[in-house]
Every structure is written in C-alpha cells, then in structure tokens.
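Researcher: Last one for today. Full complex below.
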Amino acid sequence: MTHHHATIPSRPSLARRQFIKGATALASAPFWRDAAARTPPARSPDLSRFFTSDEFHFVESASECILPHDENGPGAQELGVAGFIDQQMQTPYGHGELWYRKPPFVSGPPELGYQLPYTPRQLYRNGIYSLTQQCLRHYHAPFHQLPQDTQQLVLSHLETGALTLEDIPGPTFFEQLRNNTLEGAFSDPIYGGNRDMKGWIMMGFPGARADFMDWINQNGAPYPFGPVSISPSLSMTIRE
Amino acid sequence: MAKELTEAGLSVTILERGEDRHTAETGAYPNSIDELRGSVRKRLFQKLSRNSLTIRNRIDQTALPYRQLAAFLPGEGVGGAGLHWSGCHFRVMPDDLRLRSATIERYGKKFIPDDMTLQDFDVTYDELEPFFDKAEKIFGTSGEAHMVQGKPTGKGNIFAPNRSSPFPLPPMEDTFSAAQFRAATQELGYHPYSMPAANASRPYTNPYGCQMGPCNFCGYCSGYDCFLYSKASPNINILPALRRDPGFTLVTQAQVLRITLDQSKKRATGAVYVDLNDHHEKTISADLVILGAFQLYNVHLMLLSGIGTPYDPHTNTGTIGRNFFYQTITTSRFWLPKNRHTNQFVGAGGAGVAIDDFNQPDFDRGPHGFIGGSPLWVNQAGVKPIAAASAGGGKDRPRWGAQYKSDMIETYKHSLNIDAHGSNMTYRDVYLDLDPTWTNAYDQPLLRMTFTWKDNDVRMNRYVVDQLKPIARAMGATRTELNMLDYNQPFDSRLYQTTHLGGGAIMGSNPRTSALNRYLQSWDVPNVFVIGANAFPHGLGYNPTGLLAALAYWSAHHIRTTYLTSPGPLVPS
Amino acid sequence: MMRRYVSILGLCALIGGLAFSPAQAEDTPSVAHTVPPSLMEQGHYQAILGDCMACHSAPGRPAYSGGVPFALPIGTIYATNITPDPIHGIGTYTEADFARAIRQGIRKDGRTLYPAMPYPSYARLSDSDIHALYVYFHHGVTPQPVSPPPNRLTWPLSMRWPLTFWRWFFAPNVTKAQQRTAAEFTDPVLARGAYLVEGAGHCGACHTPRGLTMAEKTQTAQGGSSFLSGGGVLEQWVVPSLRQENRTGLGRWHEDDIVAFLKTGRAPTGISFGGMTPVIEHSTHAYSDSDLHAIARFLQTLTPAALHEKEWQYDPSSRDALQRADLSERGAQLYIDRCAACHRTDGRGYGTVFPPLAGNPIVLTKDPTSLIHIIKEGDTIPSLSTAPSSFSMPGFKQTLSDQDIADITRFIRHAWGNDESSVKKENVKNIRSKK
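Model: Here's the assembly. Have a good evening.
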C-alpha cells in the first residue's frame, strides 16, 4: 500500500475564515477566542496510533461524508473526528472490553443485536480493508480518492446493506462509523474531537457548565452563553 | 433495606458486584459532566464482559447474547440503578394493585386475553401509603399534592390517590417545553400536573440527616451521579448515614454466585461470591438473606440457587421467571416555529408536566379493547448533543450528509419530546429462564429473556399516542412526528427504550402462581426476601421506582415487626 | 490544630517531644477501681473538649497511643502515648503528676513539655475536670504498649532546657488563670463559654496572633482585642478572626450559625475547610448543645479588633449582570463557567450544602490565600455523626491557569458588595500543593 502522508486535503482557508467569522459573530464574549487558543492541535495521520495512514484517510473522508462542512458549520474533518476515533481505539471500548464477547457467535435477526466476534478495532481494520479492495476493484482508487458523490454512493450502499464487507454486514460497519463520527464531533474536546468546541457551537449546546438555575424557562428565547469544556487545558487525555 | 435492618439492631453485610461510588469523588463537577464517558460509554452501567443475558422474541427462536448495552441499561457499582436513574418518583393508582379484580369487575373476565397472565399484587394502596410517604421523605421528593388527608389541597394530579402528608418539597419548575404542554393540555380540558421528582427543588435534609443540594436543571441525571447531590440515590440519601453504622459492612467487587441453602432447600445459609480483587470464591453465612440486585439478577440468582421452581411456559407451572414484563415507551416529537428555542439541554430527570387522563382507572378502556394505560408527558431531562445528533432530524429524514446536518440542528434547537410511557401486561410465553448455551465470566448459565410486544399493549400505545394530535395543534407545532408501536413489530434490543424491566419473581397470594408472598418473602425459602421490580405482577403506566421503594419499606417494616420476633413464613402457604 | 502551632514554634527552635523512656517509669501503675459511669463520661467529654485525639491518635495506630508526626524544618517530632500503659504511656502518673503536665507543662520527671501541648490554655481547667480527665485516661482508655517513633532532631535543637525558660515567662499561673477566666462574666452561660474557649477548647492556639516569642499575645478576652483576632496564615490557610468584625469576623453570624458550624461543620453562613475541619471532626461536633451555645454567646461579646470596617451590604449589580448574560466584568465568564453551578449567580450558594461567597468572611479577608487555596486544591467536608453527608469542592488547578484563578478570585472578591482588593497571578502561583 502507498502511504500518503502529505496528501491530507486541508480545509480551504477561505471557508475556514468565513466560518470563524460566523462563530465569532455568534459569540458574545471573548471566551470563544480564549477557548479556541487552548484547544489541542489536530491529530494528523503521522500521530495516529491505531489507524494506518490509509485507514486514517478513509476514516477522515468517510466521516466527512457523514457530517460534511457546510453553511451550518464545520464538518468531521475540521472537528478532528478521525483523530478522536483513533484515540478511542486505544481505550477499553476500542478493544471491545465493554461488550459481552463470549462465543459461540451465531447470527440471528437484526433485532437481537450485534453478534459478530469483532471488537471496534477489528471492525475498522477488517471493514476498511474489504471496502478498500472493493473500491479499487470497482473504481480503481481507494475510497478517499473518489469523487464526493461516489463516496456518498458507497456509504449509502453500506447503510442499506447493498454492500457487505466480507462477513461484516454493511449496516453494522456504517453504524459503527456513524456513531463514532457523531461522538467525535460532539463529545467534550478533552477527547480530541469537537475541536474548538465548534460542534457544540453549531448545535447551540453549552457544554460542561451544567447550570441552568436562572434559565429554566426562557419563554422561547435561546440560552445566552456559549459552550465550555470540562478542561480547556487538558489536551487529548484518554480515558475509558 | 440495609438501613432499616441495622436500625433494628442487626448486623448487615451488603455484597456489591461493582465498585464503591461516592458522589464527591466519582460524580464530582465538572468531570462527571461528560456525555461520552457517561451515557455513551456507560460509566455507571453493567459490565457486560462479566455477565449479560440472552434475548429472543419467540419461544421457537434461539436466544442470542445481549452483547452491547442498548435497549435497557442495568447499573453496576454502589447505588446501582438507584444512582443512574432519572428521578421520576410516582406512587401508584390504587386499582393498578388489583388490576385483575378491577378489570373483571368493570369489563368481565372475557375482557382479559387468553394468554395474558394478569394477577393482583395482594397489597392495597392504603396498606402501602405510609411507606410511599416514608420513601418520599427519604428521597426528598418534589411535587404538588392534590388530596391530603381527604382534603383537596393543591394543583396536583386530580387522579392521584389520597396522601397522608404533602410532598416534602414544592414541585420543580416547568421548563419552556413543559410549560407549553401544560398550557395546551389545560386548554384541551385535560388535567396536567407537575411530575413528582426525586430531584430536590430546594436544599433538603432527610430524616437520616442526609443532605441534598437543589437541582439546577443541569440535565445530567439519567446515567450520571448528580454532582449537585440533588437527585435521590442510595449514595446521597442513605449511605452517608448507613456507612457510619457499626453494624453495617459493605463489600464491593463481590459477585454473588448463588445463595446457599441447607439440605432441606427450605432455608438459606448464606451466599457464595467471587471476590473480584483476588478472584477467589468466598462464602458468607447469614440468618436472613435479602436479594436486592436489579430485577433481572434477582431472578437469575433465584434460578442459579434453586430457590423456588423455575417457570415452564408449556405447562404454565413454576414461579421463577413467570410474569416478566417491560414498559411500553414511545417518544413523539413536535417542532415549534424557529423563533421558539426549546433549549433541550436544560432539564431534570424527574421534572416535567404529565397528564393521566389515559392512565387513570375511570378512563373507559371498553371501547378501545385494551387493559392498562399510559400517561403522556413532557419530561425534558436534558438532551445532550451526541444523543441529539444520533437521533437526527426525525424518522424518514436523512441520517447523514448535509440535509441531515441541517435537520438535526433545527431539531435540537426547536423541537421537544413527548413520551407515552405506558404499561406492559404479562403473557404466558413472556418469561425468564436460564440459557442453555451462553455463560458468564464465572461459567454460570446466562439468564434468557423471551420477550416481545403483544397486541393489547400495542393497541394501548397506539390509542394514547394518537391523542397527541390535538395537543400538537394546540402547542402550535409546525411539524409533528408521532411514534407508536406497530402490530407484530418484534422487540428490538438495539434501541434504547427504558430500563424498566419487571416481574419474573412476583408477589401474590398463591404460591403456585407467585414466587413471593405479599411481604416479598420467598414462599419456598422463608428466610429469603426479594426486593425489586421483579415483585410486580405486571407493568404500570408509571415509573417503577416509587412503588419499588414503598414495597421495600413495607417489607422491611414487616421483617422488623414480625419476622425478627418469630422467623418463619409471614403468610401460611 | 496543634499541628499548626508546632510548625510555628519550629521557627524559633523550641522543639522537642513529650516522651517517656522506660527508665523513667518507675512508679507502680494505679490500681483499677470502680469508677462511676458519670465520672467516666465527664472525663471522656473533657478529652473531646480538649481535642486530645487530634495530636495523640495517629491513623493506623490505637487510640491515644501517639505517633502523629510533626514535620518541622529542623526535624520531626512525634506525639506521645497517653494511654495508661505504665511503660509506654502515662500509667505511672499520679493525679497530681497528671494535673501538673496538663496545666503547667511539666512532665513527671520534671522536664518541660513542648508547648505543642497547649498547657497555657489548659492551665484554667478546673480541678473537677482534671480529675475526670485523669480517671478517663486511667480507666476508660485501653493501655497500649507501643511507643511512637523516636524524635529525629539534632543537637543543639534537641535540647530541652530552653523550654523551661519559655515556660517561666509565658505559662500562666494556674490559680490566677482559673480565677481570671472565672471572673470575666457573672452570666453563667458566658462564664462557661469563656472557660471553654480560653481553656479546653484552646481556640487561641490558632486564632490568636503570636508575638516574637511565638507565645499567643494573650490567653483571655480580658487580655485585649488581639485575643482571637486571627492567627495569620497557617499551612496556606488564613486563620480568621473570631471577633465581631462586620466583614472579616463573625459580626454577621448569628448564635445559631456558630453553633451549627461547630456542631456540623456547616452553617448557612459558611462551611468548614482547611485546618478547622479536623477540629470539628474530632472535637467540636461532639460538644453538647449547651456548651456550643455558651461558646457562641461568648464569642459574640468580643468587640471588633479591626475597627472601622465598613458594613458589608449585598450589592445585586454583579448578579443582575450575570443573569442578563453580561460577562464584561473581568473573571465573570470564568465564574459563570466554573463556579455558578454551585455558588449561584447571586453568590449566595445553597444553605448548608454549597456555601455563600457573598459576604463570606473568608472571601473578605485582606489576605486572599484561603480563597485561592481552595479554588486550586478543593476540599471536602467529611461525614460526621451530626451531619453524615460529605460534600466536596473540586480543585481547579488542573483545569485553570494561575491567571484564570486570579481572575476568578478577583471577581468573587469584587462581586455582590464584597469589594475587596484584587489578586495577582503571583498570589496564585505562590500557593503550592502539598499533596
């Protein structure tokens, strides 16, 4: 496999400036600038510890399809989602330790839930490998090098189950990716995603302040304060 | 229960499979305000890697393991479900305790479907009232009474039964969403009331001297340990006093494998547990054994220990595993105009506005052909962003991509949830037993759940949810999504619904059809009492904790006043 | 609190230990006899009043067997075994020996005790209370045949003779001390309060400033307004005045607030933290209600030492600004993000669960050390029999920068009418964790 350390597409700088302008206009206090200054830097494939460079590119572009940059705000890439997922793969969760994993593994109706023997790490590793093979076969390029509309088509085939990744049903892989993408976009920045709390800004979620005593019923007005992280100074701490 | 028994002078040891939890440490601000670690990675919940269960919808299926926590979330660690719950603290409709008798009186025996195993609780509201009252005072419950000592006193639920005293704290304030629901239902002639909440609306000191801070609607109730000390939990309301009692011992990381019985199988001698610190099996002897695990695991322990006869659906005999039930709950959504922000992150687990017009006993089920009922409520408990993003913009809307993103953001900012939180009856082929294939980390068979939705409950849910249409109009909703159960839709273990599981070791008057007598004492092994929602013979429209707590105090009272002076069966079998 | 006392003494090299070597224990142990339960109870209560346990019971060791270390710049000394063991403890003490040690600081062998032992306060204990205490320590406490670790001091600091001179100069005459305290009030409740505060309670050991000789400037209310006027900074906590200053003392505390504070560690006006918490935990929570009221009433007779303190008045402007989302005041954003969840936008907190910051004397002291310290490190009020709930304030040193903490401290000291001096980053930096 070829490595593409230098080919990570960076966000067009104009779009970024426009977004920041928008976010700053939203904010009513210097808090936003302070918080942004204290947020950890983006994780790049060079720093990924679980994903290979190619895997990282896949996660980055697939998560961006799920949560794309648009006029509402940043997408998964700008929010650092792939780095977040990479970190999560180092945790007990990534190793499947939160799941019941005793054999035998027997498939059954979907209502009875996940029945594969794979941990999240194995789902990504096996799933990305199989998907890459299929992309190369059909489109002669890995997923992250496909045009956006083709990427979207591939993902919808996964979502509906039209595409299977060896023994991993498409929807199983898709839901894993979707869940982790949304977690990375909207969890506290201490986990490496939701960079600059821009996911929260976009949703209007105030973060870890946890006090609405004076704002229980605003009679339809929005809550006035922007978000706050558990710890702006804690960077990329890995927990559970 | 442990507090009651140490007060009675007994030496009490609690065996807890999980770790110790002190709110001041594990629940401290702001580290506990963390959705990923809390609701998503499920910090306070059961470690499935050690013990789980298997699930199937039908008796002819192979049950498969519940490998990822999803539909329901049993707790683990000191406090258990009492730590991670929301705080909805209801009493009970008196007729719900005698639902079989009341149904027959009003609609005749034929109204009960053939496969429905409906039974009375064998305890009355009047008998339990002092214990509801006691539990509310221990929990520091906020609410508004309707009838106290036979006199109308406030703007509380007009369908609620008489109380011996008012709530210890005034009701929680309405969020914007709840206020909208209150106004709309009032306008339509329904009877809205403030939900009784074990979230303290004021600072409070309970009869044990334990203190609560006031709830500030931070929204981190369900799945969290409440850094404000305002959601009632054993950790905040009981253990601070209990831990000081020299007669009390708490052993954590102690996974009980079974209750030991003597040769007659009529007397428990203690328990065998695995000490998870050194992985050695240890035994502890006891004169009196209280099973106080989560509902599922009380039943599991009885089956593993050989207490009582396992239920057999084919012959309809045996009692352990019988009358298992869940809770019908569907959440509908209204979107308000874009100039109205619902600030869904503001909330308290037990606070909200409800109507009981379709849950109260006088509501005529005859024309609709179902037993049971459902309150409707806006219980804005604090919607957090990962949950909101996962739910997206509603069903039939894109689940990813640009359109999804716009829909999701709009939905988070301007919509509100309404729950139909209804009863679930019990059926002959819905039950719990031991799984033949899968085992836990201690090589014991897993519990097996056979469960799906039945027409009676689907019909009830659909009828009640349908009543939301005029309410949505009255609230000025710009878009409405009514979510209801579908006929023949199997129970889906992948979707979170609620952790209100019940039955399986039920109380009753007949030892052939119940595991426990009216004092929650095992018919088969009289020095075992089993405390939990496993004792309910069927489901309720209300959340189970209030009744569960009252039954615990009721049982403790009879242990203290009767059993301890003359140990033996409290009801002749 | 004696721990703090000794650490100050360490600075002027008056250091040693209350130790009894086997060679000195030659008298026969006292013979056990039947003791009336009421007398035993009185003695036990005296031991609580005097907080003997604070110094003489170390975690992991039997009660009263000593071993609490006092780490000082010049070495470590250990509190002694005061159980009735004849060899390791005080089993050979006669009641007269015992009384002389407690009230005059003189050991059975005639040598002088380190004034870590607050004998200048205990001097005024009545003969009846000493008798009860003696009976309790000889018949109510289990003998423990263990010695604390030996003191680790090097000569000349290990010399004990300078202590004798110190004692000559500063230890009060027992009879005079007793008479003086007894004569302060004719009201029996106030007299009892004075007896407890000046005597067994030895409040002045921390709350009265010390002179150059490291002796408390005065032992009694009659001795002038320095009595209980605040003891400076001990272990990075400001010891506040217990006099009637409106802002920095107890001027706005009601009698019931003082009683609740000493009984449960928590009052609507404030919650204990720092060095006071162990005193409440080991001692004052078990005082009788009548004694607590006597103490409170006595403290309320102490006129302000700091004169001309302007009266604290609640000013709603900061609250109003926060509630209308105006965060322009320096530190306001940090306060609303990190503090308001418990202490509220109005700074009034929540009763005895989360203490008020508005008008809190600890917030209003000239020296902001305590406020900075608790923001950085947090603290916990432990479970007590009188108030079983334990509450914690989280520490923010991991979360916030020194500048942030300086800004928050500044905001708290300016808001709601508090109007105190500002705080610099350097103030924050200087407070370092000992954990």
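Residues 545-563 of chain B form the longest helix (19 residues). The CA atoms of residues 68 and 129 of chain B lie 39 Å apart.
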